Amino acid sequence: MKLGMTLFPREERFFELLKEATENVLKATEILENVAGNIELAPEKATEINHLEHQGDRITREIISLLNVSLVTPIDREDITDLAQAIDDVLDITDGLIERMVLYKLDTTPGHFKIMTQQLHGATSELVQAVALLNIPKKYDELNHHCDQVIYYEKRADRVYREAIAELFEEERDIVKLIKWREIYAIVEEAVDATEDVCDILQGVTVKGG
């Protein structure tokens, strides 16, 4: 009995930490979306996102530490590790993105960029809902639906990215601005792609647990 009572809280803690990690990412992408609509906020909000990135690192470390002291885990250890890292990757890329925006002293944000940040925010919102269902196998169909929505956002962001790059090369005459925005677009696209990586792992878990 004592062993079971010791293990159960640890099992639940894995799910709590993974959900906390995705909620942390969601906060960062919401801030980024706000910055896309008001670029003057970038330096201030970069500090906030950097703080969230540190929080994300702390959560990841706690997950790994918990793995090291747990005899059993609610899902495969590799899946927990991969999930924690994949979620953290989204946050790291988002943090790097806004740091680059501040470094480049951008003073305007094109419409395509605003749309892409909306897709990133939408994808991370779906991730939060998906991860919240990870400990409820009977709701894995619903979890997969949220992952399908993430893929929808990723595909739309990919389409907008291609449009943005085409427009950039067609209309931008300032070569420095062209280089800066080509990189910014590529980073936000990378962030959206990273949300799909999280879903690949989640859906792998549902296959094993289904």
What features would you describe in this structure?
This protein is mainly alpha-helical and 210 residues long. The protein has one domain (2-209): Phosphate transport system protein phou homolog 2, domain 2 (Methane Monooxygenase Hydroxylase, Chain G, domain 1, Up-down Bundle). Helix content is 85%, strand content 0%. It has 6 helices and no strands. Helix 1 (2-37) runs antiparallel to helix 2 (42-69) and helix 2 runs antiparallel to helix 3 (77-103). It is elongated. The protein starts with a helix and ends with a helix. The model is unreliable at 1-8 (pLDDT under 50).
The tally of strands reads 0
Main CATH class: Mainly Alpha
Q: Based on CA inertia axes, which overall geometry fits?
A: elongated
CATH superfamily: Phosphate transport system protein phou homolog 2, domain 2
Q: Tell me about the biggest sheet?
A: none
Task: Name the beta content range.
Answer: under 5%
Order of helices and strands: HHHHHH
Helical fraction equals over 70%
Average pLDDT value?
93
Count of domain modules: 1
Instruction: Using the 3D structure, state the CATH architecture.
Output: Up-down Bundle
Secondary-structure map:
Elements: H1 2-37, H2 42-69, H3 77-103, H4 111-131, H5 140-171, H6 175-209
Helix pairs in contact: 1-2, 1-3, 1-4, 2-3, 3-6, 4-5, 4-6, 5-6
Offer a few descriptive terms:
mainly alpha; 210 residues; disordered N terminus; single chain; Methane Monooxygenase Hydroxylase, Chain G, domain 1; 6 helices
